[in-house]
Structures are given as structure tokens and as C-alpha cells.
Amino acid sequence: MKGNIVVGQSGGPTAVINSSVAGVYAAAKKLGINKVYGMVHGIEGFLKGDLCDLDEQIGDETGIELLKRTPSAFLGSCRFKMPKIEGHEDTYEKVFEIMEKYDIECLFYCGGNDSMDTVKMLSDYAAAHNKPQRFMGVPKTIDNDLPITDHCPGYGSAAKYIATSIKEIMRDNESFGFDRQTVVVVEIMGRNAGWLTAAAALAKGSDCTGVDAIYLPERTFDVDKFMDKVKETAKKKASVVIAVSEGVKIADGRYVCELANENVAVDAFGHKQMSGTAAYLCSLVAKETGLKTRAVEFSTLQRAATHLASLTDINEAFQVGFDAVLAAEDGKTGMMITLDRNGDDPYQCGTSAYDIHAIANVERTVPDEWINETGDGLNDGYEKYARPLIMGELTPIFVNGLPRHLVRK
Questions:
Q1: Radius of gyration (Cα) for the chain, nearest Å?
Q2: Do residue 209 and residue 281 come from a single domain?
Q3: Of 174, 204, 201, which is closest to residue 188 (Cα–Cα)?
Q4: Tens of pLDDT along 348-384?
């Protein structure tokens, strides 16, 4: 590429999304691209002309390594939805004006479903108006719900954190006997796809019996069956630990969290902001059984725990960023880099560039054959899929007893 490039981040951050920015930057430097700009707060900031020079922000190999160990979105994120092209051509023209001003040949966008929709719309506009600029999608989402790709960067680290934390919660809850019997309900992110909650199944091993039930949004949630499960389990065990997705719905289509609060906020993409599922279920258990309960929400922690990130995840996040630049160098546009699993024993994974139109606005859920017959657990098929994704560690760089992060100047 003769021109410069720009990279941005969008949507909920992950523990490894910055590794993808590092991959874009490293590939650009290897190819001799003059300038690598960063969007400050994604496409929303870009439309305001808010850019930074990544040479000044990252600088060298030390900066790259520190960026890999930094959680959240180093460049700043956004939840800005690009409007439909018709009637909003001025918004799209603004993107191209800024690209021309900074001699930007290709825009790289790291994100999930909504971010890939942005890549699709911008590349479609460029094609329809004979504009030379190119657009590439770099996948990220802890939700793991992008289609085509075997899995999404960010998921492995979130799954590692969830499984680890579940084990630790179980150890804590097992400390007391029946005289202090406690039911713990752990609420895990996941709107319509239960990939994150499924990760609770990975806690089971030679030193851990695993959780007592896992409820995913792929199956209709039955409150009565949930209560029966809790009561039956509590007869046998002093410690009861259950994992539930924040996105579980009852038969009439309402989210369980809406049973406690009907006035759920909605974001720019029309997504309901969910929270309180575990708290609501714990209140039911306490009311019907008199048992002590504890609601645990991992919330932001499951996407911010870079200190417990999967090395496999970090390396793959870096690779999709790196390979996106190589694909753009070959003239590709309107595509997203996918992770393609080539083997399980040993685990092997490569990458490809795939048409963004087959990816944007398509949501992939947990396969039905991986969910058990009673709908409250996972089978070995899921573990075979997910276990390789959580392998390996990258030790943080500690300063004064705490991990050091790279902070945007």
C-alpha cells in the first residue's frame, strides 16, 4: 500500500482486543507503511477527526508487548451505529473526506456483529461510488457469536476467566456445611448466545465436580424447573452453584431480568441492557426455600481480565490484525479475517479473509447438540471445542506489585 492506514475499536472491549491493534501495527511496520493512525473512540471519533499517531503511542517492540498485556480498548471504543446510506450520504462522505485528508488507503475495524455491519456499509458505499479506499474487519467479541469464523478473539480469555472464577467460587462455597448451606447463582454475559455461560462447564476436572446446572439462552428458561433443580440439589449438597446467562428468556419471550424490572434501558443498536437475572432468581430461591443465597455478576470483569488471558487467544488476536493488513495489501476489501481450525490434536488454527456480507448481522449460537437433554448443562462436544482456546498464559509486567498497562497519551 502506498497510502496510510487507520485502525479502530468498537463495541464492548475484550482482554485481547489490543493485541489485534498490535497486530495491525506490526504488519504495517513490516510492510513499510508510512503512517498508522488510530481512531479515538471508533468510527464515532473518526467522524469528528479524532485520530492519533500510533508511532507516538506504541513506538517499538516494547510498546507492542505492553499493549498485548493491556485490557479494554486502548484507542477507546464506541457504540455508534452508522445510519442507513439513503438520506445520510453526508455522513458517509465525511468518512471519505477524512480518509483523503490523511491519505488513508485502508480502514481496519476491530469489533463484533455491529462493527462488521459498519465495515459492510462503508465498503458497499465505496463500491457504489467508485471510491478507492478499502475496509477490513478484524473480529473480536467475547460473545463468540460471529458466523463463519471457528471462534472469535476475546472469547478464549473470557472463558478462561469464567471457568477459573467458577472454580474459586465453588471452593469458597464448599467451606461450610449444611448449617450454612448456600445457593450461589452466577450471572454471566450473553444476550442471545450462550457461549460465555457455557464456559462454566470448563471448571469441571479432577479437582472440581463442576457447577450443578448451566442455563443458556438457546433454551427456554422454565422458572419452575429451575426451582425444582435447586430444591433437589440442595437435599444432597450443602453447596449449590448454578451458572445462568443474563439473556435467558421465559416462554413468552421476556428476559428473566425483566421479571424484576420492566424498564430495561436500550442502547443505540436497540439492545436491552441486561442485569439482575441472578439477583432475581436468588430472591425466588430465598422466598420459596428459606435457604441463604448469593448472586454473583461477573459483569465487566469477564472481558477485562488480561492478567488471566489465554496465550492462545492473545496470539490469535494479534494474528487476525496482522493478516488483515496482509489481505489489504493484496487488494482485498469488504472482508473479515476468520479463524479456521485445522486440527484438534494437536490444536491448529489458520486464517482466511471472508466476504463481510456473510458475516455482518448474523448471530451464531451454541450448537444444540452440545446442550444436554434436560437443557441445564453441556456435553463433551463443547469441551473439545473450547478447551484449546483457553490454553497458555502471558505473564503481566508487574510494577509496584500491579500489572503495568499501556495508556494512550
A1: 22
A2: yes
A3: 201
A4: 999 999 999 999 999 999 999 999 999 999 999 999 9
Number of helices (H), then strands (E), in the chain: 14, 13
Per-residue pLDDT at 179: 85
C-alpha cell at 314: 492473545
- 214 shares its domain with 278: yes
Strand (E) positions, 45-120?
51-53, 104-111
Here the CATH number for the domain that contains residue 224 is 3.40.50.460
Chain-wide mean pLDDT for the chain? 95
> Looking at this protein, which amino acid is placed at residue 179?
D
Residue 238 CB: number of other CB atoms within 10 A? 15
DSSP-assigned letters across all residues of 321-372: HHHHHHHHHTT--SEEEEEEEEEETTEEEEEEEEEGGGTTT------GGGB-
In a domain, 206, yes or no: yes
CA dist., res. 194 & res. 104, Å (int) = 38
Residue 355: active-site member: no
Residues 247 and 337 in one domain: no
Q: What are 205's three cell numbers?
A: 476436572
Residues 91 and 121 in one domain: yes
Q: How far is CA 7 from CA 56, 138, 232, in A?
A: 15, 9, 52
Question: Quick one: cell of 260?
Answer: 424484576
149 sits in which H/E element: none
pLDDT digits (tens, 9 = 90+) for 94-111: 999 999 999 999 999 999
Q: Which domain holds residue 219?
A: 155-304
The answer to whether residue 374 sits within a structural domain is no
Q: Is the pLDDT of residue 266 over 60?
A: no
Confirm whether 290 is domain-assigned.
yes
Q: Among residues 55, 60, 124, 143, which one is catalytic?
A: 143
User: Domain total for the chain?
Assistant: 2
- Are 56 and 163 part of one and the same domain? no
Average pLDDT over residues 230-239: 96
Same domain, 27 and 93: yes
Q: How far apart are the first and last CA of the chain?
A: 27
